[in-house]
Amino acid sequence: MKPYLQVEDLTKSYGDRMLFDSITFGVNEGDKIGVIAKNGTGKSTLLRLLSGHESPDSGAITFRNDLRVGFLDQSPIFEPGTTLMSNLLPAIHENDHEEWNREDRVRQMLSQLGIDDAELIVDHLSGGQIKRAALARVLLGAPDLLILDEPTNHLDISTVEWLENYLSRQRITLLMVTHDRYFLDRVCNKIIEIDMKQIFTYDGNFDYYLRRREERLEALTGELAKVKNTLRREQEWMRRQPQARAGKARFRINAFYDLKERASVRYDERNIDPSEVKSSYIGSKIFEAKGVSKRFGEKVILDDFTYTFARYEKVGIVGENGVGKSTFIKMLQGIVSQDAGEWNVGETVRFGYYSQDGLNLPAGKRVIDAITDITEDVVVNGTSHYTPMQFLNRFLFSPADQQKYISTLSGGEMRRLNLAAVLITQPNFLILDEPTNDLDIMTLGILEEYLRNFKGCVIVISHDRFFLDSIVDHLFVMEGNGVIKDFPGNYTDYRNYLKELKAAQAQETAKSQQSAAPSSNREAKQRPRRMSFKERKEYEALTAEIDALTQEKNDLEAMFNSGENIPDIAEKAARYSSVKDILDEKELRWLELSELE
């Protein structure tokens, strides 16, 4: 494999805060690398260093000569007053799709990303549209190396799945930061983790990374226990031997302080700890929607929606961007009024609303003051009392962090603060609108565990498929024009249902076309078409191929789950992804032919 990029002894800090110290790694042609780390430990900074948007304190970043690099910033910028077309046309690589009309190429890429008008002025775009347009711009450049910072943020699920398939199938080298775990699992063949200011590389997909990482942490925990035991012995020596603190023992004293520093390292995975923050009591009556309707001009959000919400129900809301998901949950809380119908909410219901727009906490206040304004006494389980400072500690705001002004917080810190501000009131009905944006993977896992055990009701809007699968019992599928369908299952169940439905519709269409086709005689009209000799051979070959592919897929899964060291794991992971795609295609064709049996 050709080396595309080599990073050697890279160091970066902000003031006295060290992000990474002398890290070294390489990117080779064909690598599809996911970068994982806790919030605030340098993921985005690393990408900005590699893309040339920031400079390191020391170290070297070396690219292969003439390498085309495309970079998607987490907060992309376009020149005000310009159209999408004028921004994207120059991005097209000169050798890319020469047979295409260049403007058609721009329109096609935008359409695939959910934007239908290439002449839109960038000033009028939403944050989500800006992200999509920036993604289109970088993909149109056909780079050799693609660097993406949170590419799935602000994309609806269907667009995320399109991008996932696009990146999986393209022969492209990729380095990206994303919290979407299904995306990481299906696209990446290598994971780089930033932890304790160092780099740890795992040659496999996200599932492989999780297993190997657990082994690493167990080893580190064992090492830490040994260090602490040694430190206790050295502390005894230091107390007993004050006269030895010079001369020959100087090396041992230096080693003692080194041990002390190593023993202070925390391998604590919990970025937040809301485990003791319970919901207040919730009665049997939650809410009833009776004939609720809402429209904005010609756009229908709800049309005669009727539903009775049950106790402890956990539901996900999915649908394309713009169908009214956020409007729906605002109507439920009375933030937006309906045109007709009514919501009857139970007396014991206490909403906790985690909005993608945040809580509008005053930027000029300190963190501790903003939380104290909400309550000065946090009561947990009706008995335990916390001060606001103690409560914030559970969300990883140290005493120093609590003195920060809200205006200085990072995106991840703001998310944690908003979550703390919602949970501090002990709601029993949580309404979460895109809660996963800007949360790292470790924090997401803890939040999922909390929500699974939450003794109350939950409505969640999210494009994070793993998050939905982990939490919800069923889905409200908003299809547009006011139509909401209740699907009894999680998101993966729903996608499998759609896949089966699409296959069945394809078969029905094929049958209709066959029955409508003109025939030269009456017998041919009445008798269903049989397989041709060529189709019979294809059918028999497909049967054998599907059996072989299924066996290969099962063998690969068994290998991945064995826990054994797999030297060529990246190649095996890529083959596994390819086998699944080929198997889907061949099974669909087999179904079509089986109808002719």
UniProtKB/TrEMBL annotation:
Please identify the protein, giving its name as recorded.
ABC transporter ATP-binding protein
**Bias kind Polar residues: ranges:** 508-521
**Keywords per UniProt:** ATP-binding, Coiled coil, Cytoplasm, Hydrolase, Nucleotide-binding, Protein biosynthesis, Repeat, RNA-binding, rRNA-binding, Translation regulation, tRNA-binding
Protein origin, superkingdom: Bacteria
Cross-referenced SUPFAM superfamilies = P-loop containing nucleoside triphosphate hydrolases
User: What are the Basic and acidic residues biased-composition ranges?
Assistant: 522-531
- Family the entry assigns: Belongs to the ABC transporter superfamily. ABCF family. Translational throttle EttA subfamily.
Q: Name one GO molecular function term.
A: rRNA binding
Which stretches does the entry tag as region Disordered?
Answer: 508-531
Q: Where is the ABC transporter domain?
A: 5-221, 287-505
- Biological source species: Duncaniella freteri
Q: Which Gene3D superfamilies match?
A: P-loop containing nucleotide triphosphate hydrolases, Valyl-tRNA synthetase, C-terminal domain
Q: Which GO terms describe its biological process?
A: regulation of translation; translation
Whether Protein transport counts among this entry's keywords is no
Query: Where do the coiled-coil regions begin and end?
Result: 532-559
What PANTHER family does UniProt report for this protein, alphabetically? Answer: ABC TRANSPORTER ATP-BINDING SUBUNIT, ABC TRANSPORTER DOMAIN-CONTAINING PROTEIN
